[in-house]
Amino acid sequence: MKGLMMDRPLMISSIIEHAALYHGDVEIVSRTADHKLHRYTYREAHGRAQQLANALTDWGVKPGDRVATLAWNDFRHYEIYFGAAGIGAVVHTVNPRLFPDQLVYIMNHAGDRVLFIDPMFAPLVASIRDQLTSIEQIYVLSGTLDEVEDPDALPGLIPYEELISGHSPECDWPVFDENTACGLCYTSGTTGNPKGVLYSHRSTLLHTLVVGQKDVIGLSSRDTLLPVVPMFHANAWGLVYLATMAGAKQVMPGKNLDGESLYRLFEDEGVTLTAGVPTVWMLLLGWMKENGKKGFSTLKEALIGGAAAPRAMIEAFENVHGVSVCHAWGMTEMSPVGTTGNLKRGMDDLPVEKQHDFKSTQGHTFWGVDLKIAGDDGKELPRDGEASGNLYVRGPYIASGYFGDEDSSDAFDADGWFRTGDVATLDPGGWMKITDRSKDVIKSGGEWISSIQLENAAMGHPGVKEAAVIGIHHPKWDERPLLVIVPDGEAPEKASVLEYLSEKVAKWWLPDDIAFVEEIPHTATGKIQKIRLREQFSDYSFPNT
Ligand code: AMP
Questions:
Q1: Is the dihedral of CA 55, 59, 61, 62 positive or negative?
Q2: Are residues 424 and 474 in the same domain?
Q3: Do 487 and 531 sit in the same domain of this protein?
Q4: What is the pTM of this model?
């Protein structure tokens, strides 16, 4: 027997429609190339998203067409999220930090027809324009072409405001199958070509509802969100949809993500929740320390994800600045939030040190994401907090394949679970600890050493600004760890770092050597780029081997 409930499809347009109707006066504030700070309300945003929807339809955008963006977080990017998806088109958010060759590959592979760019990316796009085979029209996210350095280099470029002007601020949002695609995002592709994750209206709405739970992220209409995580990195972790659904105020930082710019926006706009990768927080915390700033007026919570949050960062936020940290884990393929670091029942009474033990893990599961770990033979391993294995996930907003990739079967096990490529432990309470990416673990004498745990431990040393650990060939042990450090000021004594580490990790985990560098390479989404680091040290061998 079927239930007797309305079968209303889950549509992205319904989120902004709701915000405009019931939170119509709430602000979205953004920094753009042509506005120091632009302010408007959900009501106005909805009107302009509808203008855009009408403009795109008139231009000839059809359901299923890919509409690409190469842009920072701001109000026009926000309007594309809703205006293009609302008419059944697919918003393809492209990461401008990728190499030009990767941009060409991704946009051609996606078959993008229309491209929206921030003015600052015009020279980059001009340099690859003749290789972009499917793009028919490029719009620049500004009022005029004045913001573009050399508009003649991109013939036919039209400002966004010109595109939407004159179009009606009302459209009857079409209602269609909720499984229709709404967004496309390519993974950063640390190995092989980037792969496209194709979200649907249904998966996006389900993800929004789930992360809205208080234990996960849980935003309220009284909150003010500043997503530092870019809208091109897994839909800004779904936060833009969540804030809109909740009717929370949003502050879009544009391209200025340095410590001072963020601090000023937090203070001036009354931000209560923010989200970003550890490298961004390193800059903010560094700037605050240098400028003698302690605490914030309104900021209550910082969401950290995308890469492991070092314990020292969690301690600085919580102990020095009074900001609660939610350290979460996820993947582009998972929409993307997969775990939450918010404490569970009974944990508020634990000593702070113990709470930080939990917060330093990758968090715990919630309804919506199933996790399991398995050995290389595919057999499931116990959830005892000890056994470490390949991490698999399953759920209604997790990718079931890749766009334009006929055979994505390698990415799934026989029962359809997605292989994350992470190696982790799981405990009976659902707390998960990533020990490494499967390709980054250091295999020493048949045992595994976690590069992430060593990095995190090293980051606590006062002389260390950033740390990365890679495996280097060793004639006896196969591989041993090399610790690469960006010093915080003068390079610390190697012996002092090793002594510090010996209190934190097993003796046989201690790095065989330490190298000091000026900079550690990062991927386009802020992760340590181990491949490049390994290349950098390809001629290195340990002393006395
Ligand atoms: P992406 O799809 O670019 O967001 O990358 C997903 C990958 O980032 C995961 O599979 C992890 O390897 C890594 N990652 C994300 N969040 C965390 C975290 N909190 N701790 C450690 N690694 C993380």
A1: positive
A2: no
A3: yes
A4: 0.90
180 noted as active-site residue: no
Tokens of 101: 């060759």
Of 421, 437, 453, which residue is a domain's last? 437
| CA-based torsion, 471, 472, 477, 478: positive or negative | positive
The backbone torsions φ and ψ at residue 494, rounded to the nearest 5 degrees and listed phi first, read: -60, -40
395, 483: one domain: no
**How many domains does the structure of the chain reveal?**
3
pLDDT of residue 99: 82
Residue nearest to atom 6 of ligand 1 (CA): 331
Ligand 1 in contact with 525 (CB < 6 A)? Answer: yes
- Print the domain residue range for 427: 369-437
Burial of 80 (0-12, 13-18, 19+ CB in 10 A): buried
Using alpha carbons, list the distances in angstroms from residue 208 to 202, 461, 491: 10, 38, 45
Sequence-distant (≥ 6) Cβ neighbours of residue 361 within 8 angstroms: 327, 341, 431, 432, 433
How many Å apart are CA 425 and CA 389, to the nearest integer?
Answer: 7
What is the block-wise mean pLDDT of the chain (545 residues), using blocks of 10 residues? Answer: 97 98 98 91 98 98 98 98 98 92 95 98 98 98 96 97 98 97 84 86 98 96 97 96 98 95 97 94 95 98 93 96 97 97 96 97 96 94 95 98 86 94 94 88 81 90 94 88 94 94 89 95 86 91 83
- Estimate to the nearest angstrom the gap between the alpha carbon of 220 and the chain centroid: 21
C-beta 308 within 6 A of ligand 1: yes
Q: Which of 391, 393, 527, 531 to mutate to test the pocket of ligand 1 (most atoms within 8 A of CB)?
A: 527
Closest C-alpha among 171, 176, 170 to residue 11: 176
Residues 118, 83 share a domain? yes
In our burial notation (b when 16+ CB lie closer than 10 A, e otherwise), range 502-522 reads eebbeeebbbbbbbeeeebeb
**Cα(97) to centroid of ligand 1, in Å?**
17
User: Do residues 239 and 227 make contact, with C-beta atoms less than 8 angstroms apart?
Assistant: yes
